Amino acid sequence: MASSPTASLATQTDVLIVGAGPAGLTLAAGLTQLGVDHVLIERADAVQPGAKAAFVQPGALEYLDRVGVADRLVAAGIRGRHFSVHDGARTLLRGSYDNLDTPFPMMLLVSQQTTEEHLHRRLTELGGMVHRRHKLITFSPDFPGVTAAVAAPDGSVRAVYARYLIGADGVHSRVRSTAGIAFPGKTREQLFALADVRLEPGSASALLEDTTFFFSSEGMLLTSPLADGQHRVVASVPPGSKAPTAEETETLLATRGPRQGGPKAVEVITASTYHVQERVAERLSDGPVFLLGDAAHTHSPAGGQGMNTGIQDAGNLAWKLHAVLTGLAPESLLDTYHGERHPVASGLVAFTSQITSLATMRDPELCQRRNDTIAAAAKAPGITDWLARRLSQLDISYATECATEPADGTYHVGQRVSPTLVPAAGLDWNLALPNPSTGPTGSGRIGPVNFQFVDGLETPLLIRPDGYLAAHGVPTDPHTVLANLASYLPGGPT
Length: 494
Ligand SMILES: Cc1cc2nc3c(=O)[nH]c(=O)nc-3n(C[C@H](O)[C@H](O)[C@H](O)COP(=O)(O)OP(=O)(O)OC[C@H]3O[C@@H](n4cnc5c(N)ncnc54)[C@H](O)[C@@H]3O)c2cc1C
Hints:
- It is a single chain.
- The chain has 494 residues and is α+β, with helices and mostly antiparallel strands.
- It has 3 domains: 12-54 and 111-183 and 281-351, FAD/NAD(P)-binding domain; 187-276, D-Amino Acid Oxidase, Chain A, domain 2, CATH 3.30.9; 397-494, no CATH class.
- The protein has helices at residues 22-34, 58-66, 70-76, 112-126, 174-179, 246-256, 306-325, 335-359, 364-379, 383-392, 478-483, and strands at 12-18, 38-42, 55-56, 78-80, 82-87, 90-96, 107-109, 131-132, 135-142, 145-151, 157-167, 185-199, 211-215, 221-225, 231-237, 265-280, 285-286, 289-291, 297-298, 429-434, 443-446, 449-454, 461-463, 469-472.
- Strands 1, 2, 8, 9, 10, 11, 17 and 18 form an 8-stranded mixed sheet that branches.
- The protein is globular.
- Mean pLDDT is 92; it is low at 1-6.
């Protein structure tokens, strides 16, 4: 059981989560929903404001729906639909999320602070809590788990034994460094400036209503509407530049942006500069220690992917921890966390790195070639839809065939099954049965297995609690499926 909101720090737990950012909060909410004993510690005393993730992608929304957070986030945000690439006034590419096969065909524009607040609220509703102002100092092996030293708000240091330790403690992860897990990669030399601004009403060109990359000889510019009537402006800037003022933001928009309309920035809400780091932890787990979110991978914010990936790391790990801790699965199931999520993290770093390199090219001849190639590619059938699937993170697949889309309607084990075909069932296993022409139909639940009859299915599908296919052609009797659940686990007997 999760700690109650008034509980003091436990001295032992099944799972100790370090860090209550989006990744740690999502994991804690999932574990609380599943009834897994855990402790979540966070060194900060409250959710931190600041300009961080501004988009929640459909892939993350589908998981957040399983833990009961998606609808309230959608209500709090703005449904972004389009993304574009421009070279000055020339439109090179315009894509849309409209054709995505998901209940959430949108890049949801909502601040990271709001996302964390909703996750925290949901965690509390479910009976979980965050131990704020508690900082992990270090930990040491204590077979089969670890003993962690945690500094409490009164300055005392408490020992917490945990069977599993989760580093959701961000890019400078103490868990990762104490575990001795390398974080190879590079820091890009290019400096970027970010400003969240309020524009003068009526001064924003229609172009600024899409999430838009502008290429120009002065450098790249990214603009996006945000919730609360703000706009985000990100630009490559010369070394030594300071956080942009309203005037400087206007200049960036005027010289690199839509050129017409001259949007006026009346207020800078927050501004900063940053260097992009591109790194993936060598291993996402080491014995009882697991890394997720920015502790495991960091990359350019271009494409709005980082927080979303951390949320899905949590989705991948929560049900596996539950299955192992309840004896449903052998310990080896936890090895599949690294096996499944490390390639996703590496692919993501490569993808966002390509976007950053393309966007920051300066050689005029190469820029011309880039622009012509993008414009020609955008006209090819399916290209903008492919890009939308990539950005939305709906193309993530753990299938060994590397297939991301069902071929001829047939799913491979490890592929995502769209909730538009089989409605999600919280964090239950989900047995989807073809609708019989005669006989009983309906839905129900036996232990952790939800079953439902679904129109248009040719064969029964067994879907993992995180929405990926565990097996097809399974028996139609939910009791038999439950009795054999261990045989449908990834990495287990097939
Ligand atoms: C400018 C900018 C723009 C971005 N835009 C996007 C975007 O549009 N879309 C997107 O998906 N992502 C975006 N990101 C990335 C996103 O912000 C991160 O990926 C996300 O915050 C990572 O979440 P996390 O939970 O892994 O880590 P964090 O959010 O870093 O949370 C880690 C938590 O751990 C706590 N902690 C650290 N050490 C300890 C310790 N020793 N003990 C206890 N607690 C500890 C910290 O206080 C923190 O609360 C952006 C980032 C930046 C900087």
